[in-house]
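mind reviewing this stuff:

——
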Amino acid sequence: MAADDIQFNTDVLDVKDKQNIDLSQFSKRGYIMPGDYTFRIKVNQNELDERTVSVYPAETDKNRSVACLAPEVVKSFGLKEKYLAALKPWHQGQCLDVTALSGVEVTPDLGNGLLAVSVPQAYLEYSSDDWVPPAMWDNGIPGLLADYNLNAQARHNERGGDDNTVSGNGTVGANLGAWRARADWQANYDDRSGEYSSGQKQWTWSRLYLYRALTGLKAKLTLGEDYVNSALFDSFRFTGASVVSDDNMLPPNLRGYAPEVTGVAKTNARVTVSQQGRVIYETQVAAGPFAIQDLSTAVTGTLDVRVQEQDGSVQEYKVNTASIPYLTRPGSVRYKFYAGKPTSYDHHADGDTFGTGEFSWGVSNGWSLYGGMVSSSKYISLAAGIGRDLMALGALAFDVTRSDAKLENEHRHGQSYRVSYSKTFDGTGSQVTFAGYRFSEKDFMSFADYVSYRSDYGDYMQSKEMYTVTFSQQFEKLGLSAYLNYSHQTYWNNPAEDRYSLSLSRYFDIGRWKNISASLTAYRNKFNGENDDGMYLSLSVPWGDAGTLGLNSSYSGDASSHNLSYYSRLDNGDNYRVAAGGTDDGGSLSGYYDHPGDLAEVTGNLDYQHGQYSAAGLSLRGGLTATAKGAALHRSNVAGGTRVLVDTGDAADIPVHGYSNNTYTNRFGKAVITEVSDYSKNSLSLDINNLPENAEATASVAQATLTEGAIGYRRFNVIAGQKAMAVIRLADGSYPPFGASVRNAEKQEVGLVNDEGQAYLSGLKPGARLSVSWNGAAQCAVTLPASLAGVSQNGNLLLPCH
């Protein structure tokens, strides 16, 4: 460790007793007294989790100090293997000397609680501005969590009969090391008044499972109940084990994509996204078009979408989350292995033991081969395909799957063919996110079909053809954006299903009115042989500093509605919308308010339709995270997902930057931030411009790169308490030397001694004990009085130091 001697000219100091001066803590760069300290470790620009680091006197110079970096700490630096192996141990093998590598420097900053390690990039594994190598990933700390999403709706029908529903879903879990235990639950209560109505209650543990990251394999191990997540085969539920390569562990530019669910709500509505009976996502949305974009990338297959309107009507449709063409970067292999037994939603085994595996291999720069197999005692299917990067023409993939199923009275075998395409046209502003076609012969059976056939006595939907297109177009000269989504599914034994959605939007100015937005959304959902057609028109005009005035019209079937609305976002992050208008049946009023609070996100809505109904809705979305470091209630992002516990000591009401607005630490100095990403750098910071008057932060920014589901922990050095001028006096009546350091029990420096023992101290708490150090060691301690008014000298707090 570099520690150059610095000489001071004390003659320039205006100090009465120039023989009683101690500037030793400033005379050696990076010098701190030997002892154990808690540091945030920063390797170049990448910050690791907080560690306890011992500081020892240097073996060659007892006036210098050296930080002991334990082998497990150095392993997290991301050094290449050959350089890590070359480091020499010291202090009975407890420490590694990283400064033996030319150019490496270790600099402790006790004031900021930071240990900075500067390492030439040549010694390190690959990293980028938003991604670090696996050695730097943080598994977090042990803890418990419980996330929830509750929705309540009440509707009074003017013509008789009330409808009250309460639903909820969430996740409880526990973390220990790299392991995550999770249990998903969902509940529903429906009470309809009327002659033939009665309350219905339901509570279900929808999924129980364990998982952990296998960082060396860039994969995820899951044990318990899971869904086959495949780009080749249909998704189905099973109980068993899986090892799946995880794209999230790759740099961001090499990752996959998450599905998006879009639609149009005619009124304030509850949107439920489920898969094979398990609720994946549920939320309340305001009237108008909506887009759910924060689904997990692990969601695949066919999703069921249910939009329950406040007027009692329901929209239902399916969304196919087909992936983009199966291409893999050259020389890489992505793989998935599953084994277990298919299970029904009520956790019962629903078929024979199976095994499945698939892979994708980047053969060269532009070509990929992929394939897979599903096998059980009486069923087998094989798939093989090829993907081609056509460069300027996009990406294309083609595959064939053959199935062979032994049923009770027959032996079925058939084939399914699929082609998919993806392309972004930079020159024209066009993007085909995914376009695909699949044809299945009548006797082709996916494994999900085979399981359904056996459990439902031959009654299952036999897929025939499927088309999927997602297309967007930018018309820059017109300022117009267009988005088209089309899916068409036919069956050998059921009516066809279609879903069309077209959106057009444009921003423009009229005189002094700027950024006016006009949009049109039209859709058709064809399900069970019935069409649900609709159209939504909107015109938005900025109004005031944070408000928007809107004119909206919707048409659905033979019904139409028109309303004038006002939307605004408040300074604290809350937002609301009020609307008034009319429908074919009379006038209407509605309101929507969203409060992303520290303890939970609360959303409420009201609807009134003259002569028809009045309705109200309320949703709560939040969670509790509890660890040995502390606990806090908080907003929730992904149920059971990654989060960071922020600790500001005993400093309460400290603002921490969140996703949309600040989150404040609770009375115990704890806050949980859930808007964080897996395997990517997350920056956490205090809002130093809005700190309470009695608080000071020596460092306001921290980083965390967390594995999936981790409970990260970051502690900020915040000094909270009263401030006062004091005089520190020794037992013999003299004073500590000029430059002596005053520290609290957490070793935070709360002041420096000036001439004649004077010190301006901060972060004072009645009855607390402070240590005073000079000549490289703690020399005495003072105890603050129960009242900081205390005994004074010349108006200053008098503190005897014993």
